Amino acid sequence: MNENKEKQFFIENTFFGPKRPLIIAELGTSHNGDMTKAKEMTDAAAEAGADCVKFQMVFADEILHPNTGEVALPGGNIRLYDRFKALEMPVEFYAEIKEYVESKGLLFLCTPFGLKSASLLRGLKPKMVKIASPELNFTSLLEDIAGWDLPVLLSSGVSRLSDIEDAVEVLSGSREQRAESRGCLLCLLHCVTSYPAPETDYNLRLLPNLSAIFGVSVGISDHSSDPELVPALAVGMGAAVIEKHFCISRTDPGLDDPIALPPLDFSKMVCAVRRAAQDGGDETIARYTRERGEAFVEQVLGDGIKKLALSEKENYSRTNRSIHALRDIAAGQILQRSDYAVLRTEKILRPGLEPRWETFLEGRAARSDIPAGEGIRFEDV
Fold first, then answer.
1. What is the CATH architecture assignment of 9-310?
2. 0.70 exceeded by pTM
């Protein structure tokens, strides 16, 4: 069993590890651009025991194409692009909430989704940065953030081991380089990209294996519904960081509110995580085995082999990034850099080439018509 021997994660003279995990309340965009709501949520997260409050800096054009499709909301279907467009806020919004978060003694964390939001976020001088699972393969974004010399939290949902290896290499170089100089700057967050994600898909024995393979600290970004099971067992398996979506109420209109934890449940999670950190891996696993049953806990712990979880398999190549046409491209047209972008495919468009082929496409001729929004493939050029 794991006895909290995994690597720590270092943020400004503070070490977080399995004995003292960093607990992140993911507010995302649930404030809906309302500063009063953002501050109310920050206050509630602080009271519930969070160490850190996380936001998302959204610009729709960095994330998806207008033709991506619709999302079902309580008020009816709306284009997903339009939903993200409505969540765009000026950088001053993030500057104000950062100051407020830090005035509460909490760490401020924010996720950029492209080079524009990354540049704006860097100007706010954050103490660390988070890269979401869909951007794990966004090569040019990773290259930019690698130059910040800040601690990086990298979520690894809907990914294969080779995808993680490529991302880690971009962010922190070879294993030898990490061991010499960058070992505390990267933390891999194991994640299942499904909303909500079944607890039995989490395969938490993967955590110490990822730590050993990549020589970095590990944590969990949890989308399951249970307030404590996955977070506590993750600490038992060596997690230095626990991230969970936070809301005031699951009936609020935020995109992630239906799967987020309201304050009382978040407090339960914090207590469970702190207890697991104190008890250690063996006792934590034994306790949940007694309470939840051996067969169920064994399913949650899994076999430790990295593979796509059953609930996220269909999202592979769709949630993560690929190259898409920004406008209709006619057969014979010479591709310019402004003709395409690295975007999420989502549900109705076809995936394109991986982001690492961005520069390959420039200057090549289209073999056939490529409709706006569709992924650009090798056979298209």
1. Alpha-Beta Barrel (3.20)
2. yes
